[in-house]
Amino acid sequence: MWEQILDLNGVLRGYGPSIFSGALVTIQLGISSLILSLALGLAGATAKLSNSRFLRSVATLYTTLIRGVPDLVMMMLVYFGGQVLINQFTDWLYERYEIDIFINVDQFVAGVVAIGFIFGAYMTETFRGAFLAVDKGQLEAAKAYGMRPWQCFSRVMLPQMIRHALPGLGNNWLVMLKTTALVSVIGLSDMVRLASEAARAEHDPFRFFIPVVIVYLMLTAVSEWLINKANQRYSVGVIKAGD
Amino acid sequence: MEWLAPLLEGNNIFTVSTMNEYWKGLVNTLQLVLLSLVVGGLLAIPLALARSYGKPWLNGPVWFFTYVFRGTPLIVQLYIIYYGSSFTLQDTFLWPVFKEAFYPALIAFALNTAAYTTEILRGAIQQTPRGEIEAAKAYGMSQARLVQRIVLPSAFRRALPAYSNEVIFMLHASAVASTVTILDLTGAAYLVYSRFYAPFEAFIFVALVYLCVTFAIIGLFRALEKRLLAHLHAAT
Prior knowledge:
With 243 residues, chain A is an all-alpha fold. Chain A contains nine helices and no strands.
């Protein structure tokens, strides 16, 4: 019954369930990368605004280098390079301790690491701007109350900076969702890879790619709706200029 | 490339033939990106005008075009056009042109950048100061002349910073061309990787090449902005 529905009543020639399972992979990949990039972005923004010159220059190097290199190259570097590094590590383990194991780099993990790392750089810029937009006096007041750094962050900075970060964050998410399609190149069976395999087997690219296009547009539309909702929620109590 | 030989002596991976692959890749990438930007940019001007001034029957389809092309991954657009043309045009007179992956890739990239550029230009057109338009009207300019002389020149200038981002985005996005048999920079890096099984050398080198091209583009646009937006800076 479900198979029938996912196959759009035979239009997808039996490939429907597999293409839609690819859509789930796309969503999982997007959300996992989002979490990693948010963590890296917060760390990066904190480093960029810190007093340590060393941390500042490391963060600047990170954002400059990452934003100058194509996503696909980063992904290949992480995937193929990661495999070589792990092979060297397991060789070393064998020589040193005679532990014989073989670890394969998982395409999903490689994809999450590469995408998370790339968008961590964009998130760094977004969060840096948002932190700067919060009035300095707020933080000083929090310190004067004797709050610890973590309390300052979670009780004072975070609730106020979210509003400034949301537009950039939403934008990054929409771009990231599309970037996940690149994992099909390193062999992860996401929606794009499954559709192109079906297209080649059935000699009919349009039949399989148009559903993929529609799923991406739907994901974009849902994301835009959610971002809008969040924007409304976090802007409560702020009067827009001109209202 | 013979002059490179003494420089690369004793190097196992970066031989003259490897450098030749990278060089050809660089040429292919730049060609593809430049041509797509020119075609896409030329398409974007009428489309942006249609978005800003068109009647609903014109504005609607253009909106749909930009929404679809900006809402889906470039690699999907490339696959649709590449595989689509190979399965539909095989028996037509167009086939000699479409047989090579270069043209499907050029079409996909040009349409993609046209969609983004259209929205950038539309935003710039909408931000035209009211006073400028009123002054032009007071001079008795017709709508067409007003757009040609007042709106477009100042919109181009306002669009410049956002457009430089789009150019860099296009450069980086062009890496997907390597997935449809085009030997661009990324394709060359993959070739070198698989020949020597040396991922770090192959991909870090190509990353540095992309980085240099990116910085060159940023520098170019900075110079252009300095020149074209000079009248907007405070006199020093």
